[in-house]
């Protein structure tokens, strides 16, 4: 069998741990990931890496039980342990795709705790990356949302690795067909992948074919845009960190709040990219009001996200900024509470603080 372009990335990622879990739906992508991993562990690591196969059973389609059984048979053939994780998909207010994704990632977290495995692999590939960016653009995402998926993402209990992000779907399917013949095992073709009742089905059936025909480089162009947005997001966070220092009273001049001039923030760490750092100091409303509305929104978004809360919508941020400025104009002794589902901003005694919503 010819060399697979994703092999080097698989080998590089495997070096991070001696215990791994792989998300295995039974589709072409995860099938190739599984059999390539099994081969590499056997030939390059002398079977010294433990691999747990995880099949998340969403129960959304009538074939779900059959698919779980087919995955079980392949794992028996490869002599690999399989865990079938049954989940309940609660799609109230989220949409079925988002709800299924949330349930899947919760399953990964549960497996990480139960089996003491903190490195997962998924088979997201180049086309998944481009589809995700396109979907976010159509949904009206901001700069942060236009950044591509990372090869490695850290969650509370595990790291998620995506070694196939630069591998083309066409190569994966060709590889899957070869492995299917070699192992006498037919990979699963999920009909929902092209079901136009789902957003991604609409993209795949109606939008992407037009893009492929008229803009054949659209995927590469989107990824280039994503790289630019990553740089822009870094600048926005750098500006927000500087503004936080000023508005929290850690320095007295917006032009002198850079980290190299005033030293590190509390807790001895920089902020950009560090989602674990808690910014505990309240914000001075008068100082916040000296910033432009755009910088005020950028700072509030940064302030909440770095404390682990969901980013507010643009409309909610605009309303918050309006109320913050009105409270200040009416007098510094005025108080107000600005809420979203997971957090409340409290304006009192000339300061802005946040508390967890009840």
From TrEMBL:
It comes from Basilea psittacipulmonis DSM 24701. Belongs to the tRNA(Ile)-lysidine synthase family. It catalyses: cytidine(34) in tRNA(Ile2) + L-lysine + ATP = lysidine(34) in tRNA(Ile2) + AMP + diphosphate + H(+). Ligates lysine onto the cytidine present at position 34 of the AUA codon-specific tRNA(Ile) that contains the anticodon CAU, in an ATP-dependent manner. Cytidine is converted to lysidine, thus changing the amino acid specificity of the tRNA from methionine to isoleucine. It comes from the Bacteria. Residues 20-205 form the tRNA(Ile)-lysidine/2-thiocytidine synthase N-terminal domain. It holds the Pfam family ATP_bind_3. Its EC number is 6.3.4.19. The keyword Magnesium does not apply. The lineage of its organism: Bacteria, Pseudomonadati, Pseudomonadota, Betaproteobacteria, Burkholderiales. Keywords: ATP-binding, Cytoplasm, Ligase, Nucleotide-binding, tRNA processing. Its main location: cytoplasm. This is tRNA(Ile)-lysidine synthase. It is found in: Cytoplasm.
